[in-house]
Amino acid sequence: MGSGGADVTAQAEPTVDERTRFEILPFGRGEPEAAELTEKVRLTVTCSPKHGPDRSVEVAARLRALGHRVTVHVAARMVRDRAHLDALLVALAGAGVDDVFLVGGDVKQPLGPYAAGGDVLRLLADHPHRPRSVGIPGYPEGHPLIGPDTLDRVLLEKARHADYVTTQLCFHPGALREWILVKRAAGMSIPVFAGVPGRVHPGRLLELSVKVGVGPSLSYLRKQHGIQHLVGRSAADNLYDALAPQLADPQLGLAGFHYFTFNQLLETWQWQHRKGAHAAGKRPAEAVDTAR
Predict the structure, then answer these.
(1) CA angle at 89 for the pair 87 and 92, rounded to the nearest 5°
(2) What domains, with CATH codes, occur in the chain?
(3) pTM score, two decimals?
(4) N or C: lower Cβ tally within 10 Å for the chain?
């Protein structure tokens, strides 16, 4: 792992809209598309079960060298030992990465002593290279492998040591709002980023939705709009329209949107600008030139 972005932090940081995050994969076209963006944004780099967190850190360093702010997913089950964790954090600090998102990870057998994100989160509390902020996941529609009681208990425990929550993909704005309100009533006070789809190919979106267990959302989507709601790529539009007005609701404490782009970054970024321009009463051309 290198620290290819270290020189960026010595320069004046560009202005970045921290209310909007774009998630990309640490392989394929996500990184090249990030280089084509005409503004600097907050990018989050996932942790691939095949390549592990080391690849994500390497990609993050190159994205930082481009001037983007970066969040790196670290899968606890892919951290081999304390020395490996220390090396990851040192490399992230050297690259100027200020945010880590801790997840358990998709590998069935842990590569080291950490079976869940909370195991690593506790180690970060007084770590000399703890990033400025640390995020944890939330599951409005549950987790396919973890019971609801366990999910609720662990979320509240982790929230005491984390800085924000990002929710798993959810197509049902009412379900997302209700989940947040219930967690607020239970004592969760940290900000929440709403995890929503970007402008993603509908087949890929359906595939992932089934994998992560958002069946109730898909049922809602079909009842409300039919399957063409996904085929026409309007799921992102409808979720944005429903949730954007709620960003100002103090009961929810929404920090912004986290877009699952699946490396369709440019299209999602351009779409997001058009939506933001429309909400502000501007013509899209006033917000961004989307010509490529």
Answers:
(1) 110
(2) 17-279 (3.20.20.220)
(3) 0.85
(4) C
